[in-house]
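Inputs:
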Amino acid sequence: MTVRGTDTDVLVVGGGPVGLAAALECRRAGLDVVVVEPREGAVDKACGEGLMPGALALLRSWDVDPPGHVLAGISYRQGPRHADHRFRGAVGRGVRRTTLHAALAERAADLGATALHGRVTALRTRPDGTAAAMVQSGRAPGPPEPSADDAATGTGTAELTARWVLACDGLHSPVRRLLGLEAAPRHPDARRRFGLRRHYRLAPWDDLVEVHWSPSAEAYVTPVAEDLVGVAVLGPRGTDLDATLAELPELAARLAGAAADGPVRGAGPLLQRSRRRSLGPVRLVGDASGYVDALTGEGLRVGFAQARAAVATLEDPAQYERAWRAATRDYRLLTSGLVRAATSPVRRAVVPAAARLPGVYGAVVERLAR
Ligand SMILES: Cc1cc2nc3c(=O)[nH]c(=O)nc-3n(C[C@H](O)[C@H](O)[C@H](O)COP(=O)(O)OP(=O)(O)OC[C@H]3O[C@@H](n4cnc5c(N)ncnc54)[C@H](O)[C@@H]3O)c2cc1C
């Protein structure tokens, strides 16, 4: 079913994990969907790569089951102190971003989603309430057709119309900016945080995600395969991955001698806010709709839940707003609170408090994992 007068029912801007999840939901709802993504192949990104149990459950609902390494819980560590919580129900999984991307993209293609290699550069609402996007394309496998002038180079700009647009274009969402939906961060610049990630070729030594707290940054370690471990470091502007590891002798000793696998990737500033999640036929979904921090590692779970909610409420933007708030409430409250503690003098008390209050620590982990 395609709404009359448009090229597709739904245009998904951004073929990251949330955009692909949204495409899967669209196909399940019988909607035609085009996913526009500028990057080719299996897309990589700075990410801790921990899929919480809730994220894994949503993936399974789409018949997506990427290989990885079991994650049985979360361990906060500072010097000799640690607070360990093992998930009470289903476990999570550490999955390489490229593996996750390949599995989602394959399933989306199987279900008939159209992948378009390109970048959305402009967006407008048409008088009939549908949307028109300018897509700067590479060699496009489907609509829009490049103009004759562009055919020689295989690139071009063309208009693609859709009944709805799901903006899944990430932390620094161009669509959010184009539509004026960006909200200023509440934090002063000094509290802004950034993320870095590198992989190491070695066998995982733990089935818990270890979060090592240095004086100014957190390094969290996720096993993603039988011979591969990811280390993501979160901290203020200028945080250096090796310098952070040098402050964490227990973790540095584990990694000593292991070969780095691939480059260091970075992301940030992490805190991003949107004024609202809907404008006309456009919905902001995933990181594009706002992001708090990676400290609690459940961006994917929350993004997948938003993708499901966005497709279920396409006809009713107010309902999406309510569903978005419900899907992100725990994440916004608990992660903001933890980041506030992590960026204040209370920081050094976080791990000792978690160790002293295992019931509270466990309840927070359970709440964020589902
Ligand atoms: C350091 C770090 C560690 C993290 N650790 C975890 C973790 O352990 N577990 C977890 O669940 N989450 C984690 N997260 C969060 C998680 O990575 C994000 O929540 C997730 O990637 C959001 O997916 P997304 O599809 O919304 O955005 P993205 O993955 O950023 O995808 C957006 C896509 O949009 C595309 N795009 C951008 N502009 C355009 C345009 N103009 N036109 C078309 N396409 C466009 C981009 O190329 C990109 O592929 C972490 C984040 C960071 C930074």
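Residues 317-342 form the longest helix (26 residues). Flag for discussion at group meeting.
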